[in-house]
Amino acid sequence: MADTWFISKEWKARLVEFAGRRLLRNVANGETATYDVSRSEGQVSQEGDAFNTKNMNDFEQRVANGFANAKTAVDTLSRELVVQEIGDYSSQPLEKAIVSALNNKFEGVRGKHLSFQINTASGWYAISCQKFDGVNGIAQRWDSSNDTYAFYVPHGGADAVLKKLGSFQRKLLGRVTSSTTFDCKSIPGWEDFTENNFAIIPVKIDATGGQWKNGATGAGGAQQGGCTPTLSYDKVNGILKVSNFSWNNDYAYGSYWTNYCHGNMTADVYCYHF
Prior knowledge:
Blueprint: E1 21-25, E2 32-36, H1 53-80, E3 81-88, H2 94-105, E4 112-120, E5 123-131, E6 135-141, E7 148-153, E8 161-164, E9 169-176, E10 180-183, E11 198-213, E12 230-234, E13 239-243, E14 246-253, E15 257-273
């Protein structure tokens, strides 16, 4: 960037012996005469701004200040933004091409916004990202498909982790019959998950019920039972906990009889993510 965008001029006053004097020539006969001329303007309703060194140099300074402020803003942005068209990575898939471009062209660049274009095995992509210990960014394909991915490149140069925007993925974590936990840190974006990213889908329920009698006459009423599975997510450690898949519901009438209902749910646990 140039050192300065505007070179100011210092205006100097005109210094003469007779400031208001004029030499007039009669065009009819060629005779000349010298006169001192002064204003005779009557009542002055507004003095106005004089055309003098003070006003003109003040104007120069204001213009210079405006350009200096604009240059400072652009230089600041330039330090944060790197825009570049870089090499051909058409032999590499997008997740590898992003890392190659970052390593080859932006090694040592830290804490800046990066914008560049790369040719990958799946076409041209515009990349916009920010680089700290890792890189977070957006990759948008230029053709009619307009595929857009959010990506993360961990510090150390592993392949980029891609998440296609606008489409969910469903991952089966496992089939459960009792309380258990799942480690979700292998799923992209686990740091931002909430309970809303998970679902418990019942597969089947096994239940038994009846009445134990101890010499009582007559039949007791039927006993009901059920369970409500719950889940909780620890986003700091990426651990999902699921619970409450069984029930034991008994009702005793003294020592005569006992109604009972025991059961267990089998369920699939899913994670929904981009």
